[in-house]
Amino acid sequence: MFTVVDGDRVERIAARPGPGGRPLAPLDRPLLGWERRPHGWCRGDACLPAARAAGVETPDGVDVVAFAELAGHVAVLDAEERALGLAAAAPRLTPAEAPDFELDGVRLSDFRGRKVALVFWASWCGCRYDLPAWEERHAALRDHGFTVVSVACDRSADDARPWIEQAAVTHPALVDAEGVVAELYNVINVPTAVWIDEEGRIARPQDTQTATDLFRSMNGLDSQESYAALRRWVVDGDAGLDAAQVRAHLRVPTADEQRARAHARLAVWLAREGRTEAARRHVDRAAALAPHDLAIRRGLMPLLGTDPFGDAYFALREELERAGIPIYRPLPARPGTTA
Fold it and tell me: Ranges for the Thioredoxin domain (predicted)?
């Protein structure tokens, strides 16, 4: 048996090791939600034609890694642990339509007709102290057709919930334990905010925004400026960026970033299974592919027993600073200005 980890879905599949430890699955059984039919492999109305699928089929079974890649995934294999991590090969992210999702029973599209600030935070970040201030912004502007939707990038919901409860939030406060929403929006660090307009379009892409000045000496960000910009957008309809600037600043994930996320998914599953050393291997591989992705590198520290506020984090900051990799990525407050 092999385990396939794909976001919030963990599937055990009947397969045996083939060459190089690659899993080979039976041809006559469903695989990753697809079923083999005379004309190809199908899932609902979508089909992979038999001629294309023939390249991943062998007399001994289907090469699961090759099949996953044919079906539109990045796949990373841990043959020793008999596990496979998947991420989308080419996730769809455009200004024209913010990716919809459902998390904790809440759908983003439920808020169509209102402006939404998706606010990504985590208990392993000092931005956890900003959650009450985001709630204050939500309360102050909700009568103007505005909603904060906060998304905790914690790998354990139990880590995020005390901070949500302490903030006494009335806005939707979600926990993205499997990193599905963070992947959709290519969030590589927190705090990150994405503004979405009434028609479901991205009005301001991934932007480092704070709601308090607690860590201004470290991040150089002015929370009052970000609130003034938010208020201008909500009340006056001025997002501070025109359509061309939104397209220019939208960070679409690279192939290496997606492969790093596949390694991260394996790392999370392995850590939860108590296979800590194997998990560390995949964290290291993710870091090599996407050294700038603190959502992976710092976000996985608690699962591996490392203090995300301790020496390891400050060593990580120094590493990125030496490499010239920015930790915070604020966007221009107004067209033609610098942040």
Answer: 84-226
